[in-house]
Amino acid sequence: MAWFKRTxxxxxxxxxxxxxxxKGLWYKSPTGKIVDSEELEQxxxxxxxxxxHVRIGSKEYFEILFDNNxxxxxxxxxxxxxxxxxxxxxxxxxxxxxxxxxTGLKDAVRTAVxxxxxxxxxxxxxxxxxxxxSMGSVVGEKIARAADYSLKxxxxxxxxxxxGGARMMEAALSLMQLAKTSVKLAQLAEAKIPYISxxxxxxxxxxxxxFAMLGDIxxxxxxxxxxxxxxxxxxxxxxxxxxxxxxxxxxxLEHGFLDFISHRRNLKDKVNLYLDLxxxxxxxxxxxx
Amino acid sequence: MEYLEFELPIKELQEQYEKACQIGEESDVDVxxxxxxxxxxxxxxxxxxxxxxxxxxxxxxxxxxxRPYTMDYINALCGDSxxxxxxxxxxxxxxxxxxxxxxxxxQSYMFVGQQKGFNTKTRQYRNFGMxxxxxxxxxxxxxxxxxxxxxxxxxxxxxxxxxxxxEAEERGQxxxxxxxxxxxTRLKVPIIVVIIGEGASGGALGIGVGDRVLMLENTWYSVIxxxxxxxxxxxxxxxxxxxxxxxxxxxxxxxxxxxxxxxxKEPLGGAHSDRPGTFKSVANAIEKEYKVxxxxxxxxxxxxxxxKYSEMGVxxx
Lengths: 289, 317
Description:
The structure holds 2 protein chains of 2 kinds.
Chain A: E1 26-28, E2 34-36, H1 37-42, H2 58-65, E3 71-74, H3 92-103, E4 109-116, E5 119-126, H4 137-153, E6 157-163, H5 171-190, E7 195-203, E8 217-220, H6 231-238, H7 249-254, E9 260-261, H8 267-278
Parallel strand pairs in A: 5-6, 6-7, 7-8, 8-9
Antiparallel strand pairs in A: 1-2, 3-4, 4-5
Helix pairs in contact in A: 4-5
Chain B: H1 8-26, H2 32-51, H3 55-62, H4 70-78, E1 83-84, E2 97-104, E3 107-114, H5 120-125, H6 133-148, E4 153-159, H7 166-170, H8 173-185, E5 191-200, H9 201-205, E6 212-216, E7 220-222, H10 226-234, H11 240-247, H12 251-256, E8 262-264, H13 275-293, H14 298-310
Parallel strand pairs in B: 3-4, 4-5, 5-6, 5-7, 6-8
Antiparallel strand pairs in B: 1-2, 2-3
Helix pairs in contact in B: 1-2, 3-11, 6-8, 10-11
């Protein structure tokens, strides 16, 4: 039989036998531009041709914002419980386990303190890859503790939101994290410690209805989706076609909810420029915008 | 360079001067003397004209198309250190009202001001410097943020008025201005207000309450523009010159009435004839005023400010 003659029809390889292409050799942006992943990394994970800001996680943001990627992670060990013994198509405990295995993360936020342009900064950065960046008790607690750390040590706080909203599997416990995180931000505000909210793609639901919109400045990246009810929900509820650019960072800027949009390349400069200005410190770096 | 009607003699001499210099360059005729003569005459004419400006002429200068606007001042004063901040956190980012943080020397300031455009397109974009309620709310948000972090506030006033639009009324133009005025009377950081162009009524005062209110020499500040005043009281737009006279709206008139604190001199020929010179005197004035204000406690600051405004008004009995 000729080697090219196929006796069986269709694809026969079982899923588990399929070979993964080494992950991320190339990246394809939504407009179809293809970029070498190493080049992408060097360009702050922004597709150089069309300026598309690729979704990245805490690992990458820490790398971008902390000097020499040096930082101390806070409350590393916190993990979720399953207080409601919640089950949808899958048990919550299993879902957590699967997410942990897949991402190597403990939950949907990592908090850390380190130097950014030589000055201390506390960063809480959400990870969308962990159950859609959903906020449950762990996310709430870690953000609260990060704020406490800021408060105690008088260090500015940056929260990088990237979330689908509150975590349904913890129901009302998740909902109350909106209030819990807000309490901490109120205490931080009382102590006059600057808090910057960076809304990245996507920032939706419970995060927008709490800490993401409460910064001394709220900033975002080009093209990021920032919304309370996501576009699909709005479309389905209202039955209306949504205008072009609805709920993008640019839309929010126009409607008065963001202070500015920054290319990821300038993020570190701009965050630190703001801090120097508002704290009336000598400028560490001039920004080229 | 554009010339106003009363500046035409200057334009003529300037042209003569340039022509003479050109002849000198292109031919062997010695024109040094002629040039000097014309230059002398030019300077005398300038001095003559600008020394005796009528109120209406000052109004015209305050609206001169080449006059620097808020962002020109901010960029000149702060250079690279300016970080523009946007939005009222409520409805819209008003393009007629700009603001942000920047440094003059080593000191951070929160800047707020109305912004006009410099050509048809940008004038529309900036709504001719007429802010909507969201503009005033944006200004207040920034001032409150400045108060929180103990950063002094500088307001640049340059507006033909708050925008008199349908939607502006729906969203509470009056409330927005009122809120700004009351909050500015009790803001716990120094506020320095500089009238850099037009100071029209509530639209101006909505960012115009301060510890020190400075007016550039060729600006006006009053309860109404001379044109509107003429149309209301004379029932015709034709009496704007008289109205400008009657309203006592120039910097020196305002100073005499003790409604402002200081006049900042402009270069001969107005702010636009020597922009760097204008920026420098404004920067110096702000720094000088801040130096005095920064040593006052928040309590004293607010008390003095309240006292100052309480004393305004003239009456019998």
